[in-house]
Structure formats: structure tokens, C-alpha cells
């Protein structure tokens, strides 16, 4: 072995051999030689340590430079990625969309402009995306003409809410300015029962009542407050649609103003029948009416084309619906919804056929194209009898009652009912060879009772799938285009597999049982 400071080799093997014995330097020369060699070794160790330190210092510097270079490259790479994304953005297909189409897309997004709970509204959000979005949004007053606002109750009107009121006022003013002179669609939730404080935000809206076109009022009685939509504001001369939700609004019916502009009305559930007739007398051009739970002389509504009657009283099932249906005659009706929201079990449910049948007979519904019957206790035979009176029907939706076991004989969707819809065969309920509902295009059935017969359903759907127009004309039928079947619980999927061929051929088919993944077809 050689050392750093000299060329004289050191005999390591001999030294190791001597260590294995009891050898000790016998002479002064040998002792001196060992001590000199030992010092030389220590010097070489120190020399090696110094060189290692220098090497470490050099490596640390190189490593730091390499790490810095790595970080620099990584940062540059990330910048290139972001730049590539920006270049891709320049090639984005949306940049080729004309402003007119982009504005239509924005209109679908801004149907509410929800300002509740401090939200800015969709129009303001869209206008903050980029310069182009902002230019399109600001140049489109229609985007800013829909407003949804909440006005909290007085007992909660503290300092924090006053700050929110200031923010809401600024926001409403911005929307009113940008909507220019466009008609307004308002959804106002006023959480006050007796008195509202001086609300600048509400004043801003009432000052623009001449622009109101569609109005939804939610809350309690607010006729005593001069700032709320009341005698001075209703009806707006351009108001076409008016909905009352939850509130007691008898004051509206005391007005003598002209309501001829109103074509759509949703009526509250708390008013007496006399007030209901008063409302109808004021609305001489009414086309659409939705009422709930009224408590009867008959009224003829010749202009009404859409009627929805929704009963939410669970203790006296169908009482309110019967009162309304028994009191109306609508010869030009095209859309009808009869709904019983059976959210609670009823001990003694009542059948609904007789008053509905009387309504059908009085109104002579030769223009009815859409019918929804949901949750009513009507037998399958009676349901067929009703449908025989509406041969113009194109869309039919029937929902079994929520509690089918209460009156087993009053569930409309049965095997016999399905067979009555068959295009080419007679049935127990339809002895005539003429098909039931010859113009039917869309059918929706929601079954709650167990034991639904799949074979009769598949057979009936197959009989109404007539894509060949000449064959359809010969049979006096219109080809069925859409069918939905909702079943309770888990079912055997195999009988419904035959419907896939119709779905692939162009008929929209949905067969589903309860559950997120319950689709069969």
C-alpha cells in the first residue's frame, strides 16, 4: 500500500502476521519504524479527509446546481403546459359559436338568477368568465330580466341582515339596469306574516311593476304593507302569469282592476270558493289554471286550455278535487292533470270516477291531447270508460295510487286495462273493434301493485308500433313513439327483453323498477 506523501510501501500482510503473535518491537529501530509508519498513516487519513471534504463541497455545489436546473425545467414545463392549454382554448369549438347561439345558451342558464343566501345570480356569474361572455351577457337584457329573491322576516332583520339588504339592493339595481325595459319574471319569497320593515330592495322591484310579466309570490299575508306587491301593484298591465304559493292573499280579490292580460294563474289553497269564482271573473282570458284544495255552481271557462288540479289533503281523500272538477266546464281543454298526492295512508279512500266522468261529459273534451291521472282510486274498467271519451288523446300518463292495497278493485293499471289498449284485439272492457286512443303517441305507466303481467304489456306495445304509415292508416292508428313503465320492487327482466328490438328500431322504451340501477330497457 502506498501513502499520499511518500512512495515507500507498507507491508500490511507482515504487520497482520505479527499481530497474531506476541511480537513486540525488540529494538529501538523497529519501534521507531512502527511509530513513524503510524504517523504517516495518520497523516494520510487526514489528507483523505480533506480531499473527501473538498469532493463533498464540489458535489454539493453540483447537486444544488442540478436541483436548480431541475426546478427551472419543471417550472418551464408547467408554463408550456399552461400555454398549450391556452392554445387549445383558441381552437375550442365554442369560439366558433355565433353570439346569437351563445346568447340562447345563456338564456337557458339564467331562467332564475337566484339571489337567495347571498348568491349573485347566474347572469352575473356568466358575465365574469371572460371578456366575450361579458360582452354577450351585458348586450342581452333578457338574461337579466329573471330574478329570484328572498326577503327575511322582521324578527331576523339584524345588523348582519341589513348588510345583506344593502348588498341585495345593489344586486337588484344592477339587474334592473342591465335588463333595460325587458318584461320581468319575478319569484319573490317574503317571509313576513304581518309587517315588513322598509326594504329598499323590495321598493326597487315595486317601482318597476309595469314591467312585471311573470310573478310568483311566496310567503304569508302581506296586504297591509304598502311596499309589498298589493293594491298599488297588482295587476301589472303586462302581467301574464301569476302564482301564489303558501300565502293568504285575499286582498287581491278585492281589486276591481282589469285582469284581462292574465293568461296563467296558480291559485292558493286557503281561499273560499266565492273568492275563487271572483278570481276567474277577473281573468277573462285565462288559458292555464292550477288550483289546490278548494272547498259548488258550475262555471264555463271557454278559453282555458290547460288545467292542473292537485289535492294535498290526506284526511279526506279526493274531496277537494271533487269540488273543483264538479264545478268546472272546459270545452277547449287540451291539457289536464288530476293529481292526488298520497303522502300519507288514508283509512277510507274514495273512488274518483263519477265526478271525473261528469266533468268529461259536460266538457266534451274533443280537443284534449294530454292527460295525467296520478294517485286516484279509479278501477281499471272505469279508466277505460274515461279514455273512451277522449279519442283525441296523444299523451297519457297514469300512476297507480301510492297505497294500492287499500282498494284493490280501484287500481287502474291491470292486465285487463293493458289489454284494452291493444290495437288489434277486443277486450273485456272494450268490446268494440275500434282501437282505444287511436292517436296515442306517448304512454307512461307507474305501477304500485304487485303482479303486473309483462306478456300482455309487451303484446300491446308491439301492436301499436306501426312505423309503416300505410299500415297505420289502414288500422286508423298513429304509431306509438314513446313508452315508459315503472314497476315496484325487483322483477324478472327476461319477459321485457323483447322490447329492446323496438327500442333499437326507433321506439323510445323505458322499463324500470325501483332503485338507481333499476333500468331493464
Biggest pleated sheet: 13 strands, parallel
Tally of strands: 15
Cα-based radius of gyration, to the nearest Å = 41 Å
Q: In which range does the helix fraction lie?
A: 25-40%
User: What strand line-up does the widest sheet have?
Assistant: 1-2-3-4-5-6-8-10-11-12-13-14-15
Put simply, the count of helices is 15
Principal-axes geometry comes out as elongated
The residue ranges in which pLDDT falls below 50 over 5 or more consecutive positions are 221-232, 248-256, 314-318, 345-349
Separation, N- and C-terminal Cα atoms: 87 Å
Which structural category do the helix and sheet elements fall into?
A: alpha/beta
Strand content: 5-15%
Any overview of this molecule?
With 521 residues, this protein is α/β, with parallel strands linked by helices. Among the domains are: 15-90; 97-286, no CATH class. It contains 15 helices and 15 strands. Strands 1-2-3-4-5-6-8-10-11-12-13-14-15 form a 13-stranded parallel sheet. Strands 7-9 form a two-stranded parallel ribbon. α11 (380-387) links the parallel β11 and β12. The protein starts with 11 loop residues before the first helix and ends in an 8-residue tail after the last strand.
TL;DR of this structure?
This protein is of the alpha/beta class and 521 residues long.
List key phrases describing it.
36% helix, 13-stranded parallel sheet, F-box_dom, alpha/beta, two-stranded parallel sheet, elongated, 521 residues, LRR_dom_sf, 15 strands
Element layout with pairings:
Elements: H1 12-19, H2 28-90, H3 99-109, H4 122-126, H5 131-138, E1 146-151, H6 159-178, E2 184-190, H7 200-206, E3 212-219, E4 241-245, E5 264-266, H8 273-282, E6 288-292, E7 299-300, E8 306-311, H9 319-325, E9 328-329, E10 335-340, H10 353-363, E11 370-374, H11 380-387, E12 395-399, H12 415-420, E13 442-446, H13 454-464, H14 469-475, E14 482-487, H15 500-505, E15 508-513
Parallel strand pairs: 1-2, 2-3, 3-4, 4-5, 5-6, 6-8, 7-9, 8-10, 10-11, 11-12, 12-13, 13-14, 14-15
Helix pairs in contact: 6-7, 10-11
Protein name: F-box domain-containing protein
Domain F-box: 95-147
Organism: Rhodocollybia butyracea
Amino acid at each position: 500500500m502506498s501513502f499520499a506523501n511518500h512512495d515507500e510501501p507498507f507491508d500490511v500482510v507482515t504487520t497482520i502476521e505479527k499481530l497474531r503473535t506476541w511480537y513486540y518491537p525488540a529494538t529501538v529501530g523497529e519501534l521507531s519504524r512502527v511509530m513513524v509508519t503510524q504517523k504517516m498513516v495518520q497523516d494520510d487519513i487526514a489528507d483523505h479527509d480533506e480531499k473527501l471534504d473538498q469532493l463533498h463541497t464540489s458535489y454539493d455545489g453540483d447537486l444544488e446546481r442540478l436541483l436548480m436546473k431541475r426546478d427551472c425545467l419543471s417550472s418551464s414545463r408547467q408554463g408550456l403546459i399552461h400555454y398549450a392549454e391556452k392554445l387549445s382554448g383558441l381552437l375550442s369549438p365554442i369560439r366558433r359559436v355565433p353570439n346569437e347561439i351563445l346568447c340562447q345558451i345563456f338564456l337557458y342558464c339564467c331562467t332564475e338568477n337566484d339571489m337567495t343566501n347571498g348568491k349573485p345570480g347566474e347572469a352575473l356569474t356568466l358575465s365574469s368568465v371572460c371578456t366575450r361572455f361579458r360582452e354577450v351577457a351585458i348586450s342581452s337584457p333578457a338574461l337579466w330580466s329573471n330574478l329570484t329573491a328572498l326577503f327575511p322576516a322582521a324578527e331576523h332583520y339584524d345588523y348582519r341582515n341589513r348588510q345583506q339588504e344593502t348588498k341585495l339592493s345593489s344586486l337588484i339595481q344592477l339587474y334592473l339596469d342591465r335588463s333595460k325595459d325587458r318584461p320581468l319574471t319575478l319569484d319573490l319569497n317574503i317571509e313576513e306574516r304581518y309587517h315588513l320593515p322598509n326594504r329598499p330592495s323590495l321598493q326597487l322591484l315595486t317601482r318597476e311593476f309595469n314591467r312585471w310579466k311573470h310573478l310568483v309570490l311566496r310567503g304569508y299575508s302581506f296586504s297591509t304593507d304598502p311596499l309589498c306587491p298589493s293594491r298599488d301593484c297588482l295587476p301589472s298591465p303586462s302581467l301574464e302569469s301569476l302564482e301564489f304559493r303558501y300565502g293568504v292573499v285575499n286582498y287581491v280579490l278585492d281589486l276591481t282592476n282589469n285582469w284581462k292580460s292574465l293568461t296563467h294563474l296558480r291559485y292558493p289553497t286557503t281561499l273560499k270558493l266565492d273568492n275563487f269564482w271572483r278570481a276567474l271573473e277577473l281573468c277573462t282570458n285565462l288559458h292555464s289554471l292550477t288550483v289546490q284544495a278548494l272547498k259548488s255552481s258550475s262555471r264555463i271557462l271557454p278559453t282555458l286550455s290547460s288545467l292542473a288540479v292537485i289535492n294535498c289533503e290526506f284526511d279526506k281523500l279526493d274531496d277537494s278535487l271533487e269540488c273543483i272538477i264538479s264545478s268546472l266546464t272546459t270545452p277547449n281543454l287540451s291539457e289536464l292533470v288530476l293529481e292526488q298526492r298520497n303522502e300519507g295512508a288514508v283509512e277510507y279512500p274514495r273512488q274518483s270516477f263519477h265526478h271525473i266522468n261528469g266533468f268529461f261529459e259536460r266538457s266534451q273534451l274533443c280537443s284534449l291531447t294530454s292527460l295525467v291521472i296520478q294517485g286516484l282510486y279509479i278501477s281499471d274498467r272505469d279508466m277505460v270508460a274515461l279514455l273512451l271519451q277522449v279519442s283525441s288523446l296523444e299523451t297519457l300518463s297514469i300512476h297507480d295510487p301510492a297505497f294500492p292495497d287499500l282498494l284493490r278493485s280501484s287500481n287502474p293499471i291491470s292486465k285487463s286495462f293493458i289489454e284494452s289498449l291493444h290495437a288489434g284485439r277486443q277486450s273485456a272492457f272494450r268490446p268494440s273493434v275500434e282501437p282505444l286512443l287511436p292517436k296515442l303517441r306517448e304512454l307512461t305507466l307507474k305501477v304500485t301493485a304487485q303482479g303486473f303481467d309483462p306478456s300482455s304489456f309487451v303484446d300491446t306495445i308491439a301492436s301499436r308500433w306501426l312505423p309503416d304509415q300505410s299500415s297505420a292508416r289502414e288500422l286508423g292508428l298513429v304509431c306509438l313513439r314513446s313508452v315508459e313503465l315503472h314497476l315496484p320492487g325487483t322483477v324478472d327482466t327476461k319477459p321485457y327483453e323483447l322490447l329492446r328490438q323496438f327500442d333499437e328500431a326507433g321506439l323510445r322504451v323505458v322499463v324500470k323498477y325501483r332503485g338507481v340501477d333499476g333500468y331493464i330497457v
